Amino acid sequence: MQLSPHQTERFYRIWFALFHYVNEQRQLVPRLPDVPTEGSISPPDAFKLRNALWADDTLRERFIATNPAGLPAADLAVVESWRYRLAGTFFIVRHLKKFSVFLVDQPLEHAYGVLGLVSPIEEIVGPVLPLLVQAVLLPFEGQIIYDSLLQPYTVTFGANIRHRLNETYRTI
Questions:
Q1: Quick one: 134 and 99 in the same domain?
Q2: Given a cut of 80, is residue 106 above it in pLDDT?
Q3: CATH number for the domain harbouring residue 145
Q4: What is the pLDDT of residues 74-91, one digit of tens each?
Q5: Where are the beta strands (DSSP E) in the chain?
């Protein structure tokens, strides 16, 4: 499952405004398009901007305080909620109808139901599971999404690891 088209548009409007702000502050990308369109930012440039944003929380806080994009208060509240983001390495262990299950295996076992943005996560990463990914999970309109960038690791898992992940998923 993924966000509705309206939710997706809202997320990218907020996300792109943040990217512009980060780029103005850090000068990481030479030419950043004014309007977000599919493929308008190369993945390497998007990773640069995203990594800079999450590495320095004062960027997000100053964005909220100054509101350079003139976002409505409700959108700024979404950005504020992103202080509760969860960045790290996750196992994607299931694709369900309503979400994909991201499992944190260490140190505390926890599972998150994560929605896709434009497409279901299964269409993005494929059906072969488990899959190890680097991601940033965000709260958004009462749901959990990822920040538009997933970085999969090209590893395969043996039967014992798959079994352990399945057992962990079942016990959570």
A1: yes
A2: no
A3: 2.40.50
A4: 999 999 999 999 999 999
A5: 86-95, 100-104, 110-115, 131-140, 143-146, 151-152
CA angle 70, 71, 75 (to 5 degrees): 165
What predicted TM-score, i.e. pTM, was given to this entire model?
0.93
* CA 155 distance to own-chain centroid: 21
Chosen domain end from 33, 66, 83: 83
**The amino acid at 44:** P
In the numeric block, the tokens 């509760």 are attached to 84
CB atoms within 10 A of CB 63: 23
- Are 103 and 93 spatial neighbours (Cβ–Cβ below 8 Å)? yes
Q: CB of 116 within 8 A of CB of 123?
A: yes
Is 131 found in the same domain as 165? yes
11, 140 in Cβ contact below 8 A?
Answer: yes
Q: Of 129, 136, 138, 134, give the one whose Cα is nearest residue 156.
A: 129
d(CA 124, CA 139): 20
